[in-house]
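To the team - nicotinamide-adenine-dinucleotide complex, inputs and output below.
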Amino acid sequence: MDNEKIEKLQSIIDESERIVFFGGAGVSTESGIPDFRSTSGLYRQEWKYPPETIVSNTFFYDNTKEFYRFYCKKMIALEAEPNECHKKLAELEKCGKLSAIVTQNIDGLHQKAGSKNVFELHGSVLRNYCTSCNAFFDVNHIIHEHETEPDGIPRCTNCGALVKPDVVLYEESLNDSIVTGAVNAIAKADTLIIGGTSLVVYPAAGLVRYFQGKNLVIINLAPTDYDRNADLLIEEKIGEVFSKIKVRT
Ligand code: NAD
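Output:
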């Protein structure tokens, strides 16, 4: 680990008053949840269809059984625990230095670590709704139905209709109020830390362009198209990086 870069990150954090963190699947790989584009990511694993096909709106309705087979096996990870990145970000919010987390993740690990102001651009596996009567179901209902129903498809206990995760699938648009909240937070930030994201999934990745503050930090194992704009670029594991950071007011 490059100690000079860690020291620079520490001094940026110490000087900042309104940090926003923008993250993706790479934030949770050290918690044991695979991302999409790393060498061990879901894109390299053998499935009959590529992940972006399976997690699309068309596929959800046309191949619901196969959707849930993939989704329950690969996208729900209830046993996963927050790592040092999730935990330090929650501490930074608690001590008033971090104003928001904008995440593309759907795993709920930032909230599990204690973060409050989290804009979940792509929704959450923890929330699920009936496609007909809109009744709410938690993730345990999805798992239980998947394991006990002969076709593995979760249905509504009120009306019997199909239950859909509150996750933004490919072909679906982002929630307007979540995008507005995320944009406002990014636009007001003095420091933006981008981490664990390939920045190729749009429109989410485009939100980082609203940043006009002082310090842009990128912490990502693989290069991104945004690296040339960074004031500080750290190509290391993000949990390991945050484990070296001290939270002080
Ligand atoms: P991605 O898979 O496209 O990219 C992940 C990036 O993180 C890669 O560039 C990789 O080099 C980097 N990375 C992996 N582990 C890292 C680590 N420990 N430290 C630093 N960098 C690391 O992910 P994306 O950009 O978020 O886009 C994929 C889409 O799929 C998003 O919508 C994402 O939320 C969703 N997804 C979510 C989860 C989850 O909720 N945990 C998991 C898989 C995919």
